[in-house]
Amino acid sequence: MKFHRIDGIGGLQAAYRVQDAYVASIIADDTRAGYKIGLTSRRMQEMCGIDRPVSGTIFSSRVMRSGARLALDEYGHLGLEFEICCRLGRDLVPGDGPVTPEQAGDAIDAVAAAIELVDDRHADYSVLDINTLVADNSWNAGVVLGDFVPPPGRLDAMEGVAYQDGEEIGRGYGADALGHPFIPLAWLANHLADSGRTLRKGDIVMTGSIVTTRFPSGPFTFRFDIAGLGSVEVHGE
Known about the structure:
By secondary structure, the protein is an alpha+beta fold. 19% of the residues lie in helices and 33% in strands.
């Protein structure tokens, strides 16, 4: 089914309520592994024509390890995004004020190189609507994770390089995610708090792609290397 605009969603708050209802209707016996944050880099915002981050649920059944093999025909239009994933070492509960990036960082026990799978179902990016994107769970179709390691002191300075079939296709830095990956993480914590929810110990959070989305049209191998963090790889046909 091709992605198309849903008219009549009464703003962004309403879009997240639609997302919640959508997730509740399909989660069944699955569980929530964590969240994705999208559109945290300028290049991704320019690609989509949307100037703010969005979030969605990651289902536990869609969390894969490095080396995973995908079937293209199981997706409407598969895209791959190259990110830093954070794992919560404790609950991140807002206090007297909004969660700060420093507080968000203190709650993290590990980070990993990661690839997010998105399914845009051949969306027309020239007319992409944020409310419909959010309502559709921000297109998350799963994540592929490298090994988790303790967070380095300068996560914003970490450089990531993406490869397709051995050829470099793009690179970016942790700082491309709103200045530092802990900034979107704090945004997410505050966003969830607005609806009475909390990031919990063990949750994983994808902090947004620092390389422009790639859409393979045939068999592929993608690898994403982050110096000081490690690598993640995914194959498909």
